[in-house]
Structure prediction request, 516 residues.
Amino acid sequence: MYSRKVIEEFTDPKNVGVIEDADGVGETGSTVDGDIITIYIKVKDEVLEDVRFKTFGCVVAISTSTMVTQLAKGKKIDEALKITNKDVIDALGGLPEDKRRCSGFALAALHKAIEDYKERGTA
Amino acid sequence: MMSTMKRIYMDHSATTEVDPLVLDSMLPYFTEKFGNASSLHSFGQEAIEALSAARQQVADSIGAKANEIIFTSGGTESDNLAIRGVLAKKKNDTSRSQHIITSMIEHPAVLSTCSFLESIGYEVTYVPVDSEGVLDLDKLERSVRDDTSIISIMHANNEIGTIQPVKDIARIARDKDVYFHTDAVQSFGKIPVDVNEMGVDMLSISSHKIHGPKGAGVLYVREGTELEPFIFGGGHEQGLRPGTENIPGIVGLGKAMSLAKERLGHDPEHMLRLRDSLIDRIFDSLDDVRLNGHPTQRLPNNVNLSFRYVEGESLLMLLDVKGIAISTASACSSISKKESHVLSSIGLNADYIHGTIRISLGKDNTIEETDHVVQSLQESVGKLREMSAISKS
Prediction:
């Protein structure tokens, strides 16, 4: 029911981990929901030099987390903000219709991390 | 991807493979003995003989009489027939038609039937269970009303394996003159099921859970219990379940039940040894694990575990990639994370509820397979915890 690409990304996720000196951190979800996604970003000259994640959640939560980090890494911040949920799902070779609930969480966590970075800059 | 890997099946509460002896018993009834049991000619005669023999096998396996066996399409239909059949029969008896008692942890076959009945005006009491999944007998007794028609409480739970005190429930039902139905779909073949010993009026069994074919089941109906059918047609199955009998399925079911009964002294003991060894070794190798359900009053083949900091579906998929088939009770859908009603009813904490899996053993699982499962669980849980946003570190 999951695409081959989803299973590949899920079983061998890239960019797992914490960035200790991150420039921005974003978290979505709760234990009650059953998904928590934290995204860490390292920024240099407005480019997302490193993007990492830690995720507690289902197959969709984990595979979208790793895909979001892969799509965002190396992009300028304004470009990264243009990544859509559809881009993430397409890059995963699609998601089953009834499993899309958690698919937006990882992207939302990335947006929060960028917001956090911007707030730190203005502080 | 799976072709070169030896797969391990530990999801026997979902379904089981058909026993070769069962399959052999069925095969002639697809081809040379294909008759309709309602026909008067020799083809029909062969079908009738097969039907009677299977009915006797089923009856003997649960200590019943042959005329107390109604063949159905499976557990869900049997549960529906028991509950709706009693209510339909009592519909003109206004003093006795309004109220149903069940538990909070029943199978959807019972719970969804009850919620449908609520939607058309019946009242249902859902009796709670304790943290180990055992029914609160006092609450059950106190919930019986003058207009209660039926009590339906499962023999053993499909998720956490807890075995209910059915004899005590039967005693209460008898004292209050209320029918008692039990869903024995998970328990038959694992623990003794004898309708007189248990004192039940009705009992459901499904064929595919006990190495029989899918699409066949039984409702035991104690002599004198009054039911009305909810589907209508010819007079088959004493008019309670019209429709041409599924002879191959019924023959397979009869054989599967006989075999399960014969093996009752052996198979459950084997599964129990595997179960307890599996539980012990998982607890030895991993922290932050809990066993759900009753420690001893549980099915010999049921292991239901919650792993903190991991999510059940992810664990299931990692194990599947390693060739191990288990199941999870909570499912993630487009609208919500659907929590298991059973785990909520035993008061399991949200920290654990999402990280729950069920391993259900079968008679042919081996200790070597459990070794592989323990090792794979250790690796997979470790991997997910490394990745988890809520690990304790």
